[in-house]
Amino acid sequence: MSEEPSATAIESLTRRRDVIAVNDEPRPLVDGFRRAITYLRLSVTDRCDLRCTYCMPERMTFLPRREVLSLEELYELACGFIERGVTKIRITGGEPLVRRDIVHLFEMLGRRLGHGLEELTLTTNGTQLAQHAEALAKAGVRRVNVSLDTLERARFEALTRRDALPQVLEGIAAAREAGLKVKLNAVALKGVNEDELPDLIEWAHGQGHDVTLIEVMPLGDVEEERLDQYLPLSDVRARLEQRWTLAESDHATGGPARYVDVAETGGRLGLITPHTGNFCAGCNRLRVTATGQLYPCLGGAERVDLRAALRSERPEEELAAALERAMAIKPEKHHFRMDERGAKPHLPRHMSLTGG
Ligand code: SAM
Ligand code: SF4
After folding, report:
1. How far is the CA of 150 from the centre of ligand 2 (A)?
2. Domains, in order of start, for the chain
3. Which ligand 1 atom lies nearest to the CA of residue 55?
4. Nearest-10 Cα torsion for 277, 278, 281, 284
5. Under 8 Å CB-to-CB from 142, ≥6 apart: which residues?
6. C-alpha of residue 52 to centroid of ligand 2, in Å
7. What is the whole-number distance in angstroms between the Cα of residue 140 and the centre of ligand 1?
8. Which of 76, 221, 239, 302 has a CA 20 to 30 Å removed from the CA of 85?
């Protein structure tokens, strides 16, 4: 992409930001429900090399490149959040590792670790992880989430519309070799991978990876009906309990997942249940798209334009005002619903815009 900054521009930005980091006391971001915001999910692209059937259509329309923030702007934005008390940043997408020079952003943000930032991480489909695992570890990344919904090659191809399972498995192995802790995410899909979920969990635990299962959410148009894809995790859990002993775990990451320990595999299983169990009371996060649109809630239409603030005459003041607006409009909870009345709300944006 032509908008990427030169190494010198990045160096000078990083130095200027280091000075601000030392001099400024963080002014925490707290929303109208007294929830402190400490976690930013930053999307760096909406593009992807896969086409998961529950995420996007085969003929997906992507954002025009000129609208996407440069790496320099993404870094500026991330620093703005760190200065407001954000301690954890997850880079996401689309597929973050398809963005050219993305490792630069990890390197820049990696320098903020221990200076306001406590954790830098990413969510990836794993196809490009083998090339980047070592550089990510070197930049300070310690954990990665890899999305993997099936271990069967033909099924993977049908589900993602690309024959890329071997690459993903290679990526997971490379991440482990580079010293990264890998967590797997799998969307539970009716009639697609529901028969395979125990094997997937057993395999992951055998490799030393935690797994989190996710209920499908009605975001954006895809070819299939959402209700046909939806598999309630309460059903999955009941079936797993016939096979294994699941014990509630006190493990908590501040995220939406609730965890159980599986006695027989010795591993941990997370369950993200927007439909069968609401988790919004402890929400600590904000999402920003690759064009700088801040969505305070994954399940809401509320939005604040940070790109306009960033590109204004007085970016620091405008950004501060935009973040105050975001705090004021962050809703108490999402309104996702999946039942006989349909899949609601139907939000036009796809998950690949906000990155989950
Ligand atoms: N491309 C990367 C990946 O797949 O990990 C990062 C972005 S992807 C949008 C983030 C997560 O959202 C993935 O775990 C994916 O399975 C999940 N996801 C995508 N669409 C979803 C939907 N409609 N409902 C629930 N999860 C979804
Ligand atoms: Fe791409 Fe991730 Fe969406 Fe799959 S879930 S199409 S890998 S962005």
Report:
1. 14
2. 7-354 (3.20.20.70)
3. 20
4. 100
5. 119, 121, 179, 180, 181
6. 5
7. 24
8. 302
